[in-house]
Amino acid sequence: MTKLLLAACVLAVSAGCRSSAGGSSQPEGAATPNAASGPAAVAADYYPYSKPGTASINGQAFVVVRGGDVLLDGQGYLTTISDNARTASGSDVTLDPATPFAMDWYMKSGTSLRRFANTPKDAAFRAARRTAVADESGKFTFSNLPAGRYIVRTTITWQTPRDSYRMMTQGGVASAVIDLVEGEAKTVILRHVSETP
After folding, report:
1. 45-190: which CATH architecture?
2. Which terminus, N or C, of the chain has the lesser number of Cβ atoms within 10 Å?
3. What are the E-state strand segments in 92-184?
4. How high is the pLDDT of residue 30?
């Protein structure tokens, strides 16, 4: 009887060891759901963007307004700046690698005019960001870019009378997510202005 009891205890202990060591529903060596997050994973996503490449972006950000409405007809460069044209003249243009971390930030607050200058505190995100300033016609350039997906953003704002004494700011963030291959020179026209506050 003692031998049977001892054998049963040994079997129970060995079964418990198997269930705690290898009884997980994940295959052996599989990462846990949270193992692919955190600063190290974010830095790894940015690694392909850390070296210079051969692609470039030539862009322009502008809208044409009439009667308070933004007109979206035509897709080419704005060659003449009329009274109805509003450009990103003098505005910062940001270019961020569209990693999962950056896309999450972009979808949450990247199109907000009020939060345009806010930057995530992640060091890899900040190190990878490139900036330019749009010229008087809203044109900007980024060169020596590695292949990949990018988020490009800027602001297009203008003042209109609110009443007899005050002015109000209209416009917002113009942005796009674009793909680049090595050696590509891409033209980007930013004409959709976000209404996110």
Report:
1. Sandwich (2.60)
2. N
3. 92-97, 130-133, 139-145, 148-161, 167-180
4. 37
